[in-house]
Each structure stands twice: as C-alpha cells, then as structure tokens.
Amino acid sequence: MEERGYKLFVPEEEEPGKDSEVFYNKEMLVNRDLSEVAGEVFKEQIKNEEFRVCDPLSGSGIRGLRYSNVATEIFLNDANPEAVKSIEKAKEANDIEAEVSNKDANVLLSQHRNFFHLIDVDPFGPFTTYLDSTCRAANHQSFIGLTATDNAAPTGSYPKTCRRRYSSEPVKNSFMHETALRIYIKEVFENFARFDKAFEPRLCFHEKHYSRIMGRVTESKKRANQNLDNIGFLSYCPQCRWRKLERLEKCENCGSSTKIAGPLWTGKIVDIRFTEKMKEKIPEDWEESSDLLDMLHSEGELLTPFYDIHELASNMKISVPKREKVLEALEKKGYPVSRTHLSPTGFRTDAPIEDIKDIIKNIPV
Ligand SMILES: C[S@@+](CC[C@H](N)C(=O)[O-])C[C@H]1O[C@@H](n2cnc3c(N)ncnc32)[C@H](O)[C@@H]1O
Question: Closest Cα partner for 311 from 174, 178, 170?
C-alpha cells in the first residue's frame, strides 16, 4: 500500500479499528496531509537546526514517516509488536532513518523530557491519557498535534463523560462540534500551562469522525498567563438562537435563560498567518486537504460560533433561504461573513442575531 508516495505494510481492511493487526486508516489522509504541511511551516518559523519528531502511537508508521522532509530525527513507537514489524519494514522500504520502539507511549514520552520539536498524538479515542507525558516531552519551542475521536462526550451526548474527562460542560446544539473543539483546546492549554508552557492553537478542525488540535508550544509563563483570558464560557439561547463567547445567564437578544458551555477556549481556533503559509506550501493536487485548508483560512478570523441556516429558518418558522443569498446580504450591510468547514449549511458572521433574522426574512425563497 502507498500513501502520498510512502510505502506501507498493512493488511487491506474495510473498517480498521482497535482489533486490526496493524492499524492504518485511509480516512485520516486529510489529517496527515495538513499535519505534514503544518510541520513544514512550523519548522521554517523556528529556524532550528535540530528538529526531533515523535509519533508515539504510530500504527503503520505513516504519520511519523510523513514528517521525514523536516525531521532531523524521527521516533516511531507502538505498543503493538505487529505494528512495530510493519514500521521497521516501512522504514527500510522508504529508506528513512528512524528510531523504532515498542513501548507504552507514555513511557517513551516521559523518557524524553523537553526533547521533541514535534509530537503527533494520534490515539484511539481521547488524547487526554497522553497529555501529561506530551507536556513533559515537548521542547521549549515545539509543535503539537492531537487527534480525538471521542466526540460524543464534548458534543453533549455524554455530558458526564465530558465533565469527567475535560472538566467542562458541553451543550448539544447545531454548533456542538465547534464547542467540542473549544473544550479540547481548553484541556490542552491548561495541561501545558501547568508545566509553565503556553499552547497556542494554529489549526483546529473537525472532519469526518475526528477532531484535530494543532498548535505551538512555547516555554513561557508570560505567554501562558496572557492566554488565560482565552479560557471562558459560551452562552446560547435555545429560544432565539443567539450565542456569545461569554458567560451570560440571560440572552442579550430576547432575555430568555441561556444554556452555558465551558470552561472552554474563547480565542481563535485558526491562526490565519499560519494557514496563509500552509496555503503556499500545500500541493495543488491534494484537493480535499487543500479545500479544507482554504475554508479554515476563510473562517479563521470570525469568532462567534457559526449559525445554521436551517436552524434559523425553523426557529423563525419560514422556508429555508439560500445560504449564499444570506451571506451576500450580510456582506452588503458591511458584516464580515464566511462559510464554515463544520457544516454545509452553516455560516459565520459577527452580525447581531436580529440583523441576521431581518435579512433572512427579506430574502425571497
Ligand atoms: C489510531 S492508531 C494510530 C494511527 C496512526 N497514527 C496513523 O496515522 O495511521 C493508534 C495506535 O496506538 C497504538 N497504541 C494503543 N495504546 C498504546 C499505548 N499505550 N502506547 C503505544 N501505542 C499504543 C495502537 O496499537 C495503534 O497502532
């Protein structure tokens, strides 16, 4: 098997999972594409000669191998001995130098304090059990990527699991995947902050069945303190659908009681200076990944949680207008707008909800 020119040694499977002999999921191609390009951009930014990359939950080895264009040393690890055999074969076949091990990921990371410039944590389920050791192993200037597939908890299907795992209250609604991203980032930020390291998001998104958090780590109490203001709450009105990244018991639009999610990250989840650089680097023929990157870049500056056109129309008891018409009308009124990667019927704007609803009402269907 091959991915982007890298040879792999894994059995073909319809549904890879925990029971796979060696895990490889082609559904994660976009995740690995964007991670590889983010690694390149970060390496350029820190201008470090040494660049040690760790893929502590490697499976086939593909994730770590894809950083070979930037890494000066690659560490590939998996607890499954069959995976380790595949990694060894892949390393040989691709003619890439790498240190391969068969340890518990937490052991490997804990043995390399402040050592790695890039750590990519890609487990089954939540990343929380690997966070502590990742914080220890991250160099004072490093880049961290974490994948989460336990979206049911922070999107509100399992609120108790969310409270237990992320010390946060979720809200189940149309923008729950955005809330989940913000809960994940909060958790990552707070864990690094305990180590006097600042985590700053560069590119966070949700796609298919997983969420991805990527950001820069700097050993800096000052930067961590500055970012503490970005930990807060989100209020949502189930009556009129108003929302705000602040803790407010009453809706500012209609006065109804709100639902409150958090604590969570209230800052930007995409850094457009970073994605601008990524856009320059991503190969044109990586279409799906490149399209997602473009979308993330276009929505990066808009902070208010996104609206869903169907949800608003149903709330207003009217037929659903064309989303593009709504965006055009909002733009004409001078509001910044964008689509969102989180929903094909979603859009972002900083316009007040009464203006959005006025515009929707006046659009002929
Ligand atoms: C989701 S898969 C990794 C997929 C891979 N990173 C990729 O991009 O294709 C998770 C991997 O973690 C390994 N694993 C599970 N628990 C582990 C642990 N405690 N330490 C190290 N590896 C572990 C599994 O054997 C599996 O290969």
Answer: 174
Question: Ligand 1 pocket check: which of 57, 101, 127 to mutate, most ligand atoms within 8 Å of Cβ?
Answer: 57
Question: Which residue among 76, 78, 85, 100 is best mutated to probe the pocket of ligand 1, counting the most ligand atoms within 8 A of its Cβ?
Answer: 78
| Helices 29-46 and 272-281, packing angle to 10 deg | 110
CA nearest ligand 1 atom 3, residue: 59
Peptide bond into 238 cis (omega under 30): no
Ligand 1 within 6 A of 212 CB? no
Q: What global pTM score does this model have?
A: 0.97
Determine the Cα–Cα distance for residues 106 and 111; give it in Å rounded to an integer: 9
From the number of C-beta atoms within 10 Å of its C-beta (0-12, 13-18, 19+), residue 295 rates as middle
| Both structure tokens of 320 | 């659903």
Which of ligand 1's atoms lies nearest the C-alpha of 149? 1
Residue 283 and residue 289 in contact, taking contact as beta carbons nearer than 8 Å: no
User: Domains of the chain, with CATH numbers?
Assistant: 2-299 (3.40.50.150), 307-361 (3.30.56.70)
Would you say the CB of residue 59 lies under 6 angstroms from ligand 1?
yes
pLDDT the model gives residue 274: 98
Over residues 35-65, the pLDDT tens digits come to 999 999 999 999 889 999 999 999 999 999 9
